[in-house]
Specification:
This protein has 63 residues and is mainly α. The chain has a domain of 44 residues: Erythroid Transcription Factor GATA-1, Chain A, CATH 3.30.50.10. The longest helix is centred in the middle third of the chain and has 12 residues.
């Protein structure tokens, strides 16, 4: 099995900067996360802990 390569530039990985080859490539990856170029897919679910924040039907009815 060949040595793993850096996901940014394809060079051999350095154990000190795993999974990257250098601090430079690690910083490029961090910048991409910070700019929103990467995203983690998620499914929004109802949060039962936040149900208490929703207005109750008796509070919605005016005077």
């Amino acid at each position: 099995m060949p040595d793993p390569t850096c996901p940014i530039c394809g060079a051999r990985r350095d154990p000190h900067f795993r999974p990257f080859c250098s601090k430079h490539c690690a910083d490029i990856d961090l910048g991409r996360w910070m700019l929103g170029r990467y995203a983690v897919a998620a499914v929004e679910e109802d949060d039962p802990d936040r149900a208490d924040l929703a207005p109750r039907s008796d509070e919605d009815a005016g005077p």
